[in-house]
Amino acid sequence: xxxxxxxxxxxxxxxxxxxxxxxxxxxxxxxxxxxxxxxxxxxxxxxxxxxxxxxxxxxxxxxxxxxxxxxxxxxxxxxxxxxxxxxxxxxxxxxxxxxxxxxxxxxxxxxxxxxxxxxxxxxxxxxxxxxxxxxxxxxxxxxxxxxxxxxxxxxxxxxxxxxxxxxx
Length: 168
Fold this sequence. Notes:
By secondary structure, the chain is an alpha+beta fold.
């Protein structure tokens, strides 16, 4: 083998080794997804009450969970095909679950100002709406419609957000 080819081959081996080593070390130091840590979970249902707690940063919510079903699951649950409005709600037990809610949780409610939209409100205002009051005189589309709540995983069952679901 010619000396120039031998030098090029040795250089190629060294470069490949260096690149491979840096790729391996970069891969081993890159953040890896945590295994076994649950992500925030969404639940659908109806809010029965929200009351402040002794902790000024928390509320306590009574929540009636239900299953919002569509597709084959919805068709089988209702025994009909096609589904009316493409969804079916199963709410059999009406067993209330209790969740702590952050006082700064994001809350979106449906409003109607000629067209249906959303309004961001505080948990305190939502608590009043659930009690049948409307302190800011919002044009609520469906005061009794269900909500999707997102429950965090770091603090057990802490509600992080509440989004009202449009129901045609």
